[in-house]
Design brief:
disordered N terminus, 17% helix, 3 helices, Jelly Rolls, binds 2-oxoglutaric acid, 7-stranded antiparallel sheet, alpha+beta, 4-stranded antiparallel sheet
Length: 229
């Protein structure tokens, strides 16, 4: 049933035959059992995605949120979709509104929704139907510590991650903090999907090096599509 829904959206909204779609035939690297990296798959449509980010952050600016322990996060964040991921001293959670303004999050662009579904399917997880897209912006010297994505209600749904702009070393750990961590490069246009047996792996990003990207300047953007409810 979900598959049928997806096919209708595919034909109606995604426009895969148009020149403005990702490269679904991109080189595919099996990172671990249930994690797949599609190299540079978004490269040709990056300007379009960046325009979307500009629109979303114009309506709801990037903010440095605070961890439950009171620490300011170094990456700044915004969201689009029905729900957004937030953190403050009350905890990590999804919210249907931006806590600073009380306003709903900007709508998730229909083509992003379709592309996230398509990459989830290509990675072997079927249709994701994301209701949340967290957008992180990293400046040089910022990163994200090892963590698990565990605030979603259904942990069987995968995470689909788009990377744009400056490259970074992604840290891919085990199922507890003590396990060894491997690192690989996430570059402009890469799509990483993880789920199934790898869904609860600890992961994070090392500090961004000083860099100048022709489209994003010193910044790296990461979009994670999630099914939160
Ligand atoms: O920036 C990235 O590639 C990872 C972001 C991440 O792990 C998260 O938002 O939970």
């Amino acid at each position: 049933m979900q598959q049928d829904l997806f096919l209708q959206q595919d034909e109606g909204l995604c426009g895969y035959n148009r020149s403005n779609s990702p490269n679904f035939d991109a080189v595919k690297i099996q990172v671990s059992r249930d994690a797949v990296l599609f190299k540079a798959a978004l490269k040709s449509i990056a300007p379009h995605i960046l325009q979307g980010i500009e629109r979303i952050s114009g309506a709801n600016p990037f903010r440095h949120r605070t961890t439950p322990g009171g620490q300011r996060m170094s990456a700044s964040m915004t969201n689009c979709g029905s729900f957004g991921w937030i953190t403050d001293t009350s905890g990590y959670r999804y919210s249907d509104a931006e806590p600073e303004t009380g306003l709903p999050w900007p709508t998730m662009p229909a083509d992003w929704y379709c592309w996230a579904n398509q990459f989830s399917d290509l990675a072997g997880f079927g249709v994701l139907n994301p209701d949340a897209c967290l957008i992180n912006r990293y400046a040089s010297g910022t990163g994200m510590g090892l963590h698990q994505d565990r605030d979603e209600k259904d942990l069987s749904a995968p995470i689909v991650s788009f990377s744009l702009g400056a490259p970074v070393l992604f840290r891919w750990g085990g199922f507890n903090r003590q396990e060894s961590v491997c690192e690989f490069l996430l570059e402009h246009g890469d799509v990483l999907v993880w789920g199934g047996a790898d869904r609860m792996r600890f992961h994070g990003v090392k500090k961004l090096q000083r860099y100048q990207h022709p489209l994003t300047g010193p910044y790296r953007y990461n979009l994670t599509f999630r099914r939160s409810q």
